[in-house]
Structure formats: C-alpha cells, structure tokens
Amino acid sequence: MDSNIIVAVVSCLGTVLGSAIGVIAGARLTNYRIEQLEKKVDKHNTVIERTFRLEQNQAVMAEQMKVANHRIGDLEKEN
Predict the structure, then answer these.
(1) At a CB cut-off of 8 Å and minimum separation 6, what does 6 contact?
(2) Minimal CA–CA distance to 26: which of 16, 36, 18?
C-alpha cells in the first residue's frame, strides 16, 4: 500500500473516533444538565404545592375569624 493511503485511513479513523467521543461526552453533559434542571423543577413544584396549601389554610382561618366575629357581635347585641 502507498503511504499516502495509510495516512489517509489512519487520519480518517482518528477523526471518526474523536467525533464519536465528542458526541458521547456532549450527550452525557446534556443528560447531566437535564437531571439538574429536573431536580430544580421538582423543588419549585413542592414550593408551589406548599404555598397552595398555606393559601387554603389561610382562607379557612379567615372564614373562621369571620364566623367568630359574627358570633361575638351577636353576643354583644344580646347583652
């Protein structure tokens, strides 16, 4: 074989191997970043759920205070 052909084949193999390694490394990095974003989204969603529960509890307490104030007002009217 001619030395030019051997050099061309070796450089082609090196290029293919380098490209494959680059693609694999890029895919791993992308997967890692996606996992980190999923963790952040999960944390955010738990905050939203807790906030929703707190708002519900606050609404219930506000209604209970209204009822208590009406009862106090009724008791004051009786006296």
Answers:
(1) none
(2) 18
DSSP structure string for 22-60: HHHHHHHHHHHHHHHHHHHHHHHHHHHHHHHHHHHHHHH
Kindly state the tokens that stand for 25: 């490394």
In order along its 79 residues, the chain shows pLDDT tens digits of 788 999 999 999 999 999 999 999 999 999 999 999 999 999 999 999 999 999 999 999 999 999 999 999 988 888 7
- pTM of the full structure: 0.58
Joined together, the tokens standing for residue 72 give 């106090």
